[in-house]
Amino acid sequence: MAVTPGMENFAITGSVTTSLHSTSRLGHVVQELLDPSRTDQKSFVGLAFKLEAGKFGQLTYFRIYQGRLGRGSTIVNSRTWKRTRVQRLVRMHANRMEDIEEAYAGDICATFGLECASGDTFLSDASRKLALENIYVPKPVVSMAMKPKSKKDADNFLKALNRFCKEDPTFHREYNVEAKEVIVSGMGELQLEVYAQRMKAEYNCEVELGKPKVAFRETLTEKCAFDYWHRKQTGGHGQYGRVIGVCEPLPANQNLDLVFVDECIGTNVPKQFMPAIDKGFREACQKGPLIGAPVTGIRFRLKDGAHHIVDSSEIAFILAAKFAMNDVFSDGRWHILEPVMKIEATCPTEFQGSVMAALNKRQAVIISTDLIENFFSVICEAPLNCMFGFITELRSLTEGKGEYSMEYSRYAPLRPEIAEQLINESSRAQSEVSNRTSKLHIHMTDRGGFHGGFGSNAFADATAAFAETGGGFDPGVGFAEAGFASSGGFADSSGGGFRGGGFGFSRGGGSGGFGRSAFYGSGRGGRGGRGRGSRGRGRGGRGGARGKEGAKEWVPVTKLGRLVKDGKIKTLEEIYLHSLPIKEFEIIDFLLGEQLKDDVLKIMPVQKQTRAGQRTRFKAFVAIGDYNGHVGLGVKCSKEVATAIRGAIIAAKLSVIPVRRGYWGNKIGKPHTVPCKVTGKCGSVLVRLIPAPKGTGIVSAPVPKKLLQMAGIDDCYTCAKGSTGTLGNFAKATYAAIAATYSYLTPDLWKGAALTRSPYQAFAEFLKSNPLSVAQEKD
């Protein structure tokens, strides 16, 4: 190429004038002449663009963009800020190395001994905090399970994975905890197969590749609003955060992005909590609602919210954003995205029809075709999920003369029939995992206490019957969990005598040990009453089953019970209005049903010295309530933990009281707190309940908090005096304070109840027509 007068000017002065105009010929001359300046007056800046494992260790390739790099120079990695001394500098000629003393801007060189990753920037001046733009590396689109064929090759397998991940930024690996396997990801099936072959050739490690998995994504199809209020109060510094906004889909060209937008006006949500909300939003998007794939292509617009001056924190707003996204997952309309690849295939013209048919079968969309001499070339787009195994088919169709290349193009919506198939497969996989987990849990919990003791938290666990598990992990005696239901019956499992002769209580004997039926079951047998099972102490089978089958149907024995069961009395308030005594706990079960929940507050051993020796009893405190204006407290002492808890539950049901609730403010609102200041006392403990504004939560110790929650009170301040360490008196004092709320009647909030005839008078004819025997009558 001849040099024009403009080029002569550049050679002399080092600048290119406008005389280049059209002589640059599509930019070729400009690209060749405008090299970086080779001055050493500026500090060194270089990019590590390639890593290679050689016989002398890791070889790092540099492209120097500014300054000079000499042997013995000290350079800094701008990502890790770790200093490294360049011991050896080489220029590469294919696989041959040439040692050099220095290199300048524009040179490509290599060195050994650098700990870095591909794309790291190196500097000689650490005060310059800069990083060069790296090459764009798309996210992996294909995943496979990979494992060594022999366990002895595990070390070489890990070494190879670490090396390949360093050298190739498109190659990723992760460990799937549920499947317990290594998942490798890359840009195509062929890439992963090449790495599998390299492991065998370079590390003598043969590996097995599983079925390829496509990196699907999930996205929203239309706007979905959210309003989540996160409140949690534990007695001290609690959690409070509210987020209000809308999630909406992004345009198709941004369907891999996640965008958070703060549109709040004012200080309802302080700005320091915005990063926490963004973090919670992105963490929630790691697993979508349809198949568990990452969620992309949505914009999270925060429009309003609320905070508390004391209880609001970053973790509170992270959780609020997460739970808000869970609401969007359940309320929004979602679909699945799949990667679409751009494919260029070439083959002799005689195979053109076969190749086109194979591409059409794989849902390919033809973009262009071309004929060059005797070869046919086609460019198309096809879903990656349909392209697995295409290279084998192409070689078979073209007698080994065809070839193709594939690169990532974009993400597009998945076809409905394929999406439905993926959702069904994901549901089946999750159910299998949950089944395995539940079986493991049953296996661990049914074996009993740890090494023959009383369980992991004997005398301390307030949520189990006596200990977390029961009956001797190996030989020993413990107590079964017995997990009491709200109706007062015993749990179906945890039969006694499993592997060591422990005693458990089950719903009628289960498959072994000595069991007791839930209510009135008795006798000797398998599923009825007592039974000696095959897994108890090795005493034969399940027995003759002479006991009664399960729990009896409730047969009322009081006038009130008859009226309740026959539907004459439909609410507890009718009973409270006339102060009718409740002598059957089944009345509470019948009227409140599944709404009723119970919780064991404490189980404590009580010892007494008698002439027969030291006697041990167990005292149980149980709270019960429906979280909507009814609460009860029961105490029972018995020789057995299970009997004590069952008796405490029955006592709590018989002591259920109504709760009067109020509101905070000068306008009538939804009741959420106590109506006024009330006080309860038991022993030395005095508890005072104080109304609180909405959103405050329950500010109290754990025991009063549990009772207040079961009573349906959301916000309340408390003040306690005395020996609050005595849990029984603490709970009784709180219960007394709650009961005091019903002593107040405010005409402007609650209408006075008109006095009517007692139910015994109103339904006297019904009671006469269905008389009770003298033995049954309790009233």
Automatic annotation (TrEMBL):
Residues 213-333 form the Translation elongation factor EFG/EF2 domain. InterPro entries: EFG_II (IPR041095), EFG_III (IPR009022), EFG_III/V (IPR035647), EFG_IV (IPR047872), EFG_V-like (IPR000640), EFTu-like_2 (IPR004161), Ribosomal_Su5_D2-typ_SF (IPR020568), Ribosomal_uS5_C (IPR005324). Residues 527-540 have a biased composition (Basic residues). GO terms for molecular function: GTP binding; GTPase activity; RNA binding; structural constituent of ribosome; translation elongation factor activity. It holds the Pfam family EFG_III. Residues 335-422 form the Elongation factor EFG domain. Keywords: Elongation factor, GTP-binding, Mitochondrion, Nucleotide-binding, Protein biosynthesis, Ribonucleoprotein, Ribosomal protein. Gene3D superfamilies: 3.30.160.20, 3.30.230.10, 3.30.70.240, Elongation Factor G (Translational Gtpase), domain 3 (3.30.70.870), Translation factors (2.40.30.10). The keyword Protein biosynthesis applies. One of its GO terms (biological process) is mitochondrial translational elongation. PROSITE patterns: RIBOSOMAL_S5 (PS00585). Residues 516-550 are annotated as: Disordered. One of its GO terms (cellular component) is cytosolic ribosome. NCBIfam families: uS5_euk_arch. PANTHER family: ELONGATION FACTOR G, MITOCHONDRIAL. Belongs to the TRAFAC class translation factor GTPase superfamily. Classic translation factor GTPase family. EF-G/EF-2 subfamily. This is Small ribosomal subunit protein uS5.
